[in-house]
Amino acid sequence: MEIFIDVIMDTVIDGIKILPFLFITYLFMEILEKHAMDKAGELVKKAGVFGPLWGSILGVVPQCGFSAAASNLYAGRVITVGTLIAIYLSTSDEMLPLMISNKWPLSKIVPILLLKVIVGIIAGFIVDFAANKTRKLRHKKEEEMRIDTLCEKEHCHCEDEEGNVVKSALVHTVHIFIYILILTFALNLVVSLIGEDTLKSVITSNPVMGHILAGIIGLIPNCAASIIITELYMSGMISIGTMMSGLLVGAGVGLLVLYRVNPELKRNLHITVILYIIGIFSGMIIDLIFS
């Protein structure tokens, strides 16, 4: 019962942290759709070229909610897939607060954050370049913003609100918040039952497979994964590259939200695989450089 109560408390706290990001994101998207769709479309296309740069820089903010916001923006095609990947990769989640609380010097923290930002920028631009090339080879047009599809998927009847963007944003926020609470509770319960010590032993038991296993644990869409991986690094049990493999893949609840709001399952799976491959490959390169 004590574990059950702790899981409920952790789930609610994590959910509350994300709420402001969700509401602001949906409010922004509603305003775009109802009042500035044409002009916004042109601005987004121009900004999309540099999206991975700004996405990676902003993504380093230590909050799970930013990756969740990015998933919604991508589902509405407000940002590019490269920008989404950049944000996922640079998201620091609980790493930064944990290191600061353990009084780690800035001389060690800053290089790690810079590595995440650099990997995010480079990977984001490469992904966007590849996506554009693929689109041209297949003679496909550039994807237009489709914020209205989120309304259709959520069955929120936003079109009945007669321009009340605040109420529409609240409806979206409540729907996705309930979804996140339910799934996050289930995941937190599983992690609690398995035990953090068990997850730690999985990473450290086989150094050769450490990067692959850290990446798999990083895919767990809650803050516990980043805490476990960061603690292992701070205790000297894994290398900086192995830690980066897990933290680069770890996008908080971003992937969880992506699978909820973006209807294209195949594309979501592609994004997950790309994120995972980039994460563990970058981690291995980092170990080669700093070993």
Describe the structure.
Helix 5 (81-90) crosses helix 15 and helix 10 runs antiparallel to helix 11 (210-218). The protein is built from 15 helices and no strands. The protein starts with a helix and ends with a helix. It has 291 residues and is mainly alpha-helical. It has helices spanning 2-35, 37-48, 51-59, 64-75, 81-90, 95-101, 106-137, 148-154, 165-194, 196-204, 210-218, 223-234, 240-249, 254-261, 265-290. It has one domain (2-290). The longest helix has 34 residues, at 2-35.
Short description:
The protein has 291 residues and is mainly alpha-helical.
Please state the overall shape, judged from the principal axes of the Cα atoms: globular
Sheet with most strands: none
- Ends distance: 45 Å
- What is the average of the pLDDT values? 79
Instruction: Report the C-alpha radius of gyration, rounded.
Output: 19 Å
Low-confidence stretches: none
- Kindly state the number of beta strands: 0
How much of the residues is beta strand, in percent? under 5%
Helix segment tally: 15
**What is the share of helical residues?**
over 70%
- SSE pattern: HHHHHHHHHHHHHHH
Structural class: mainly alpha
Number of domains: 1
Topology:
Layout: H1 2-35, H2 37-48, H3 51-59, H4 64-75, H5 81-90, H6 95-101, H7 106-137, H8 148-154, H9 165-194, H10 196-204, H11 210-218, H12 223-234, H13 240-249, H14 254-261, H15 265-290
Helix pairs in contact: 1-4, 1-9, 3-5, 3-7, 4-5, 4-14, 5-7, 5-15, 9-14, 10-11, 11-13, 11-15, 12-13, 13-15
Q: What labels describe this entry?
A:
single chain; 291 residues; mainly alpha; 78% helix; 0% strand
